[in-house]
Amino acid sequence: MASGRFDKFFKDLQDRVFAPMEDPKMPLAQHLEELRVRLTRAVVILAIVFACSFYFSVQIMDVVRIPLQNAFVFVKFGDMFLSPAEAIWNNVKVSMVFATFVVMPYILWEIWVFSAPGLLAHERRFVLPFVIISSIAFYVGLLFCYFVVLPFALNFLVQYGIDSGFVPQLSIASFVGFMLWFLLVFGLMFELPLAITLLARLGWVDAVMLRRYWKWALVGSFVVAAILTPTPDPFNQSIMAVPMYAFYEIGIVGARLFGKKKPAPEVAPAASTATAAAGNR
What we know:
The chain is built from 12 helices and no strands. The protein is mainly alpha-helical. The protein folds into 2 domains: 27-183, no CATH class; 191-261. Helix 5 packs parallel to helix 7, helix 6 (121-163) packs antiparallel against helix 7 (172-189) and helix 10 (214-228) packs across helix 11. The radius of gyration is 26 Å and the shape is flat.
């Protein structure tokens, strides 16, 4: 009895929070006006965060250089620039990427609010947790890349060059481009299990099909990693391809747990009647 009242309470709460819009059909001009307002709001917020980020761009660049400097404390890296505008341009680029990462949840929220009137109540219940979880997964991917992948990769690559007799002299542009690209790729890579689970929830894929094509997924991971890695060496390709395939396996688990359940096959009336008659005998 108490469990039934508890379930009813939460169902009533969901119906109030995600109540259908009274007039979901909106004229096209009103849709475009709402889109313009939300885009303007997102751009203004992004510009404000970018201005603040650019003001502290020197401190942000110090944080960007930490993975490399921790591995090689005897050399100052990332302080050499090859053109007059290279330093300020890379500060602008780092500040813009940092501002985008910070504002990303707000941008996703604006997208969700804009699309919510066109969704059913149960669809809105599903989309909002997806936006929240995807934002968290993206940030976890950034942290994992910054604290685990980048120090390991930079240590191997730079130490290999030193052992080969070369003197490491990394310009700002080359180092910043290398690091930001890795951060972006790993941030998106952590979305892979969630994307697979979403496809399974919609009924487009299932765990059995994903397991059947695991060999293709493994080969595809190395192919995609070869395209995405900024350098052609197999080491960078492996440190990106192996986690990518691991997330594919995690996605299979998510598809098995949260995928759309297939309806049980219906028993034909004639067959059920015959079965009952045989049982009476």
